[in-house]
Design brief:
heterodimer; A: alpha/beta; seven-stranded parallel β-sheet; globular; disordered N terminus; disordered C terminus; B: alpha+beta; three-stranded mixed β-sheet; three-stranded antiparallel β-sheet; 6 strands; elongated
Chain lengths: 264, 138
């Protein structure tokens, strides 16, 4: 079996390659190769490598995704302020251009590495790997990856994170989970951000957003949150603490080493 | 892996990853040309088949897969209900059981993005096939 090119010849499909088999070379010199490899194999491999690195440092990694302007950076600012002195955090920022978001995070005294993607619409595992060369994970409790604002492309690329958190801001409308199923299927937590606008944007019904998420067969919890007023922030912080506690109890140093070995 | 810092849509990045896998297979098999690339794709893969088709000639240009045909096998969205155990068709935006309507389902098919098959041509036995240089490092 070839481990490098993706041609998975196993005892289950080897008969196809034998004389008379469906995949044998024909007289015309045509050869059909059965592969069955994910197109994003390279990215997934890099993501597994990143995850092993995160596990070795026992740091919780949260991938924040949403459309542009849904309030990811504002959420991080509020989170940093609320957890100051309790948990050590760092942030990887993904944007097409500018260091604006990283500057906002650094202004709060937290390390931030900015990835500018040019016109690329998403972060991939290789970009995150490169960013990790510019930061230390030692002593960190949480690394947030703020993905490029986009409800489509980031969902396809595993970065090595432990959890996906997807923000749906109230002005966007409550049917976004149905309109962007790939993104919201991947969510481990959905935050209904800018919840302070619910009284004025009363056509947004949180129960509809919850129903659309459930109809994607996704049982993820939903928190209504306003980074501006602090509504729901306590539930979000509790979710983070619980995620850290689960990681600490479930990942032993041995498991972390095994994960690293498997990833390389 | 070829980096994709300046690509306007992720289908092109996905297509470049596809071409890199195909190139690796062609190199391994000492093929001079790739005739056909078959990809299985589901609506919940996050990749739009039409855009993948548009990106393929761009991503494959100048590679051993230049001129190859891309054949997409578009798979249906199917879910298995955890309540009634039936497997039914579903919409990408609504993965509920088609039998009892419950939302506690698991996806059986529909999120695939798989390079399933590559058809290669060997120059020594296919004189009509144009010669292509296989890049060593891409």
């Amino acid at each position: 079996m070839c481990d490098t090119c993706g041609c998975n010849v196993t005892h289950g499909n080897a008969h196809l390659l034998r004389p008379g088999g469906r995949l044998e070379k024909t007289a015309e010199g045509r050869e059909a190769v059965s592969v069955l490899h994910g197109l994003l194999h390279e990215n997934d491999h890099a993501a597994a490598h990143n995850r092993g690195h995160f596990n070795r440092h026992n740091v919780l990694v949260v991938n924040l995704m949403s459309s542009p302007g849904a309030g990811k950076t504002a959420l991080l600012e509020a989170t940093i302020e609320a957890l100051d002195g309790e948990l050590r955090m760092a942030v990887i920022e993904g944007d097409l251009e500018t260091e604006n978001d990283a500057s906002r995070i650094r202004a709060r005294g937290v390390e931030a590495v900015q990835i500018t993607t040019g016109s690329a619409c998403h972060l991939d595992a290789h970009m995150v790997h490169d960013a990790l060369h510019h930061m230390s994970l030692d002593g960190l409790d949480i690394l947030f990856i703020e993905n490029v604002g986009n409800l489509v492309c980031p969902a396809s690329f595993d970065l090595g994170q432990h959890h996906n958190v997807t923000l749906l801001s109230v002005p966007e409308g409550d049917d976004k989970p149905a309109k962007y199923p790939v993104m919201f299927r991947a969510a481990d937590l959905m935050l209904l951000s800018k919840a302070d606008l619910l009284p004025v944007l009363d056509d947004f019904r949180p129960e509809n957003a919850r129903r659309h998420l459930q109809e994607l067969a996704n049982p993820a919890p939903v928190i209504e949150l306003s980074a501006k007023t602090g509504t729901g922030l306590d539930l979000w912080l509790e979710w983070l603490r619980e995620a850290i506690a689960q990681r600490t109890s479930s990942v032993t140093p041995t498991q972390a080493r095994d994960a690293t070995v498997a990833a390389t | 892996m070829t980096r994709c810092w300046l690509k306007p849509m992720h289908e092109l990045a996905v297509c470049q990853a596809l071409i890199e896998q195909v190139e690796g297979i062609a190199r391994e098999r000492l093929a001079q040309r790739v005739d056909t690339v078959c990809v299985s794709i589901g609506p919940l893969s996050g990749v739009e088949p039409r855009l993948l088709e548009q990106a393929f000639p761009v991503a494959s240009a100048g590679t051993v897969a230049d001129g190859a045909s891309l054949v997409l096998d578009c798979l249906p969205v199917r879910v298995r209900c955890q309540q009634c155990d039936q497997v039914t068709d579903a919409l990408p935006s609504r993965l509920v059981c088609g039998n009892c309507g419950d939302w506690h389902t698991e996806l059986v098919s529909g999120d695939e993005l798989i390079l399933s098959r590559v058809e290669l041509l060997q120059s020594d036995s296919d004189s009509d096939a144009p010669e292509h240089t296989v890049p060593e490092n891409t």
